[in-house]
Amino acid sequence: MPERPYFIEQLITAKEIAARIETLAKEIETEFYNSEKLVVVGLLRGSFIFISDLVRELDLCTEVDFIETSSYGNNTTSSREVRILKDLRGEIEGRDVLVVEDIVDTGYTLSHVIKLLESRRPRKMRTIALLDKPSRRAVKINSDWIGFEIPDNFVVGYGIDFAQENRNLPYIGKIRFADNGENN
Ligand code: PRP
User: Fold this and answer.
1) CA 51, 53, 59, 64 torsion: positive or negative?
2) pLDDT in tens, 20-71
3) Catalytic residue among 53, 87, 102, 105
4) Strand 96-104 vs strand 155-156: parallel, antiparallel, or unpaired?
5) Is 161 a residue of the active site?
6) N or C terminus of the chain with fewer C-beta within 10 Å?
7) Cα 117 vs. chain centroid, distance in angstroms?
8) Residue ID of nearest Cα to ligand 1 atom 14
9) Which of 57, 49, 63 shows the shortest CA–CA distance to 27?
């Protein structure tokens, strides 16, 4: 596929993200105030920057673990199959868990991960997503905490990629293709 030239328009600044994380971290601390240890689970790869900023704001005893998924479209059922590429290193049975997502789009990824982790019987599990695109939802799932609700824009930065690029941007940007001025 030929590469379409694009530029990136800043949508959410690094400062806005940091301020929102500070607020969310306080709410998470309240929710898990009586936790012995909170297992913070990042969904690779998109959440790697968000989880690293979030855990540093949490004044709680934490453990960090990661899970990596990959999703494939299924043409016959127009659904998506989510596969686990890398599972957690630790056990979560009877433990408090916070699942950290970068973005909830159709919801297939988060829904699959939640079901899988629930089957391991954690004591309490909550989810947080930096971005939420409710207009794209295909399965009934909502994250317990959301950083920002956004319209159906093609976003990059702060961990989120476009063809594996732009994850390192310190802000959330919107892709605008130069050939039509639109975002998709
Ligand atoms: C992206 C994103 C979320 C998921 C959201 O991951 O990081 O995990 O898609 O989409 P959904 O709600 O429609 O399931 P991707 O599979 O692109 O992998 P990445 O995190 O490695 O970029």
Assistant:
1) positive
2) 999 999 999 999 999 999 999 999 999 999 999 999 999 999 999 999 999 8
3) 105
4) unpaired
5) no
6) N
7) 16
8) 109
9) 57
- What separation in Å is there between the alpha carbon of 183 and the centre of ligand 1? 18
Residues 101-128: tens digit of each pLDDT = 999 999 999 999 999 999 999 999 999 9
Q: Which of 62, 107, 116 is nearest to 85 (CA)?
A: 116
Distance 36 CA to ligand 1 centre (A): 30
3-state helix, strand, coil in the chain (%, to 5): 25, 40, 40
Nearest to 131 by CA among 112, 93, 170, 159: 159
Ligand 1 proximal residues by C-beta, below 6 Å: 43-46, 70-71, 101-110, 161
